[in-house]
Amino acid sequence: MKKTDKRAAMILLIMAAAFFLPLPQLVKAQATYKLAAGSTIKVLGTSNVHDWTMISNAVESQGQFDLPGHSLPALSLRLSVTSLKSEHTSMDDRTYTAVNAKKYPDISFKLTSAEVVPGENNTYQIKAKGELTIAGATKPVSVDVTAVSSADNAITCSGSKNIQLTDYGIKPPTFMLGAMKVHNDLTIQFNLIYKK
Asked: What CATH architecture applies to the domain 30-195?
């Protein structure tokens, strides 16, 4: 082999190495995280009588986070309807009936795209788009999320989303023979702690 051919082959080898060697670092940076203890989802609503709140600590979720690389390629979340609890079991039971929890036991969210914008002090603003499924009806949603990365590599995601029950085919429930009527608007608040 001529010297010029050897030199060309060496240059190609170096270029190939430079192209492929960073790939393991990229794969490593994009890690799978799962929910840790302390994660909560709250559903806040109003009625003609008083405001009300239902809380769940039994959320299942995982995501592939690479916040320094401004990337969130995947995230999914599942919540059992009957894990949502208020201060009144009678209200809980009517809520489960309203969303037909026996037929549709889960509320779920699946990410379709995300824009990650870095801020100060390891804080990131994420505009997440995805599909929210409630009572068997799936609707596209956009959610603004604040993510904070801590020293122990945990990522805390918090935010809220306003929805309307009727968008998901749910008739707002009534209580006390119709004396208490739940309003159509709900707010879903979340504080989710992810760890590797």
From this structure: Beta Barrel (2.40)
